[in-house]
Write a structure and sequence with these properties.
The mean pLDDT is 80. The chain is built from 9 helices and no strands. Helix content is 76%, strand content 0%. The radius of gyration is 22 Å and the shape is extended. With 195 residues, it is mainly α.
Length: 195
């Protein structure tokens, strides 16, 4: 990492190096090394995970096209008559942005760049400002569609397949749409608590 190699290649390379060293010394079964390629192919063929890079692309497009900034400006003008209307607008836009991009860090950074100077100019306390922005970015993780729910649906479908094999096919499948429907109301209630 200190030499400047990417994190993914460094972690994978060190793990592979120690696995090969363990296999050479007889501590690591070589059959497990052959399973790595099957695991990688299985992950690449997973159709559910195709949505993850598309969510990242959507977040980059929203940030670069200034759509999130325009949405914050419009919602703050709509809520201008309310006391703390700008903070409400930040929570709403942050939750929408987090739900659409699915990445908490990107949402918090984007909302910080957009909302922090505006809120400080309006006379908001810096502690309240940073707390509002941080909370607004984490709210959208449960509001569908989000990357967390997509990854969770993949994990649930894998667990469901294992349970179906163990129960001789007596379990029912869980679809992504059902998972989204199940997360919608708790996400909106969670959003309403912060508002």
């Amino acid at each position: 990492l200190l030499a400047g190699f990417p994190v993914a290649l460094t972690l994978g390379g060190v793990a592979l190096l120690f696995a090969l060293l363990g296999a050479f010394l007889g501590f690591f079964p070589t059959g497990l090394l052959r399973l790595i390629q099957l695991r990688m192919i299985g992950t690449m063929e997973n159709q559910v995970l195709v949505a993850v890079p598309l969510f990242v692309l959507m977040g980059v497009i929203l940030e670069r096209s200034k759509v999130a900034e325009d949405l914050l400006l419009i919602s703050s003008r709509l809520l201008a008559r309310l006391r703390g209307g700008l903070a409400f607008a930040v929570v709403i836009v942050g939750a929408l942005l987090a739900a659409s991009t699915g990445i908490v860090g990107a949402t918090v950074i984007t909302m910080t760049l957009i909302a922090l100077p505006t809120m400080l100019r309006q006379g908001y306390d810096p502690k309240l400002t940073s707390g509002t922005i941080a909370a607004s970015g984490t709210l959208g993780q449960i509001i569908p569609p989000s990357i967390v729910l997509i990854l969770l649906s993949d994990a649930i479908s894998n667990a469901n397949q294992r349970a179906s094999v163990a129960a001789a096919g007596r379990t029912s499948a869980v679809s992504i749409g059902e998972l989204f429907a199940g997360a919608l109301i708790p996400g909106l209630v969670h959003e309403g608590i912060y508002l």
